[in-house]
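Hello again, I could really use a second opinion on something today. I've been staring at a protein lately and its backbone has me curious. You're getting the sequence in one-letter code plus the fold written as tokens. I'd be grateful if you could look everything over and explain what you see. No rush at all, and the record is pasted right below:
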Amino acid sequence: MNNLKDIREHMKVVGSDGKHVGTVDHLEGTDKIKLTKTDPTAKGQHHFIPATWVDHIDAAVHLTKSSGEAMQQWQTAA
């Protein structure tokens, strides 16, 4: 299990294909990662991804989903 406490503000988030998904804004509760709205992939909106998508954490947050899958399935903030 990944230690979500290792996730820091402004860390890059990448898909399983190694492509950029977004940039961490902060952890939302214990089960969601909020992405910044200023990242070019965000198109001016915050998005949420479930913590269950995290494969591992090093200098970046690596997901179990490809970048395309993650961007299709992320939740847009209201």
Notes: Residues 14 and 20 are 5 Å apart (CA to CA). The first strand starts at residue 12 and ends at 14. The chain has one helix and seven strands. The chain has a mean pLDDT of 94.
